[in-house]
Structures are given as C-alpha cells and as structure tokens.
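Lab notebook, bench 4. Still working through the backlog of constructs that have no structural model yet. Next entry is a single chain of 340 residues. Request: give me the structure tokens for it.
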Amino acid sequence: MILAGDVGGTKVDLALYDFSDGKLKYTRDERYAAKEFHGLEEIVKLFLGAEKVTSACFGVPGPVRNGRLRLTNLPWTLDSRELATGLGIQHVFLINDLEANGYGIAELTAEQIYTLSEGDASQIGNRALIAAGTGLGEGFLAWNGRMHVPYPSEGGHVDYAPRNEDEIELLRFLKQRYNGRISFERVVSGMGMTGIYEFLREVKGLEEPVWLAEKITEAHDPNSVITEMGLAAKSELCAKTLDMFASAYGAEAGNLALKVLSVGGLYVGGGIAPRILEKLKDGTFLKAFTDKGRLSQLLINMPVRVILESRAALMGAAAYAEARAAEISGVSARAASVKA
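Model written out:
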C-alpha cells in the first residue's frame, strides 16, 4: 500500500493506492483542514490508523531542498527523514505539488482530460502545466527523447503583466491593497478571483445587488457564488469577473508555454479550471493564450488540455513514491502487479 498526499495552504488531501495489472488502484482518501492541526505527521497518523504503508510521497507547495521544505502559508517545516521516522514508513518523499501533478498526467485516462484545443497533436516535445487554486502553480514536463520528466518551478510568483487599461487599473488597485509588488498569483488564483470582483465593484462601479452581497457574505467560498452567478449570467459583475480572470489565466498560460516551448501541449490543472470549464470553453482563455504577436501561430499549434480529475496530484505522488522506492529497494509494486 502506498500513501499519497497533496498538501495545500488550506487543506491536506491524503489517499491510499496499490496496483492492479500495472495501474494505480485507488483505495480511499480523506481531506483535512490544515489549520486545525499542528503538523502533517498528526494528520497522517489520524488518516492511517492501524494501516501500514510501504512508501509515501507528498506534493507540497514550494521548492523542496534536500527533502526539506518550510511552508509559506502554514507554520510547518516538513522533513522527509523526520516524517519517515515519526510515521514508521521506510520510504518518504517530498516533491513540489506541480511536480506531483506532472507525474499524475501519465496516470490519467482520456475521460479525465478535456481537450480545449486540439492544436497540432503530432508535435512531440516539452509540455507545460499551470494550475490555479488557492495559489498559482506552474511546472513543465521536459521531453528527453523517450519520456516526459516533470520539473517544478515557482513561475506563479513572477511579476503580473497587465495588457490593457482595465488590467493596469487592476494592478494599481492590488498594489494599494497589498502595499507593494503584485505577482500573477495575486490575479490568477482563488484570492485573485475575489480581488478582481472587488476591483470591478469598487473601482469600475459595477453593481453588486443586495441579494448577491448577501449570498457572498453567507457563502463558505465566495468564489463559488461568483462562478455560479457568472456562468448563469445572473450578474454582470460576476460575469465580468470571470471574463477578466479567464483572460489573465490564458495570458499567463501562454507566457509559460513560450518560456518552456511546450510544443507537446499545455495542461491546465488545479481546482478552479474544472469549476469554470464552461467559461474556458467560450474562447476567452484561448484568445489570450494565443495572443502573442509574431509567435501566435506557435501557440495556436499547441494542444491545450484541462485536467478534470481532482486526484491528479495524488495519483502522481503515488506513482512517484512507487518508482523511487523501486529504484532504492529493487522491488517494484507496479511490475509485481502485472506478473500477478
């Protein structure tokens, strides 16, 4: 049995996997509110109970150095060696959450991916991965001539680049709010969607009806209300918020695609994309994605796919745990399941 984890700024998702006929076999999972616990070890012990696992891998937000990471949104320091000792698990690995998502792509079926643009599917080469959720994650899958190897980045923290007058005003609004530099994560993420909504309400003067204000106040997640009302065209304010959000998302996705020359395609992961899929389909995202001047045709030829499977990062973490443990021990659970 393999333990997989996806550690975010607000939640921790854990799942158990084993293998059947060479493929990942899901057993069970659970989600925990991170701020209700003192650390990851406490959560894992609660999840596992008496169950034993042979290896574990956790996708974490941020750069991992020598198996160690200090989280930015939680007062936790994670160390793979300390976790292995404390949990009694022989092999424990920490990798960047986008790296985990990258490993998960190879485990997905066609039904777990939506193709937003076919592009030129015959192209072979690097792939790009962008994922907006609580924050904005970016990574790439380098083509080595035989397979795609996932690599993390901190590209979501690059400087936000406005492209029109509304976005220039948005930048000014956010600079005042955060008292300084604005990254793309401040725009393309959960907090970004809320920020755009408030900008349109407070600076651009779009009407927020009483019923909408009440709905947002009462909601556990204001963005779920913005998304629902925007997609249903029940609020101009919400619809315009989704327009600006999807356009900024597409623009930064195109920036990433250019930087890693992802002729093998762009994958859009994270929790937000599946929820606003209908908006992504209307062309707003792709128009911004391909609007790259003299290099627009390069982007038009790139396939664009949305990851629909919410467990993609968990699947990738499980696959990584098995592969690395097999390298170390010489015993592969995946291979053994094929022989069985």
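Notes after review: The radius of gyration is 21 Å. The chain has a mean pLDDT of 94. Flag for follow-up if needed.
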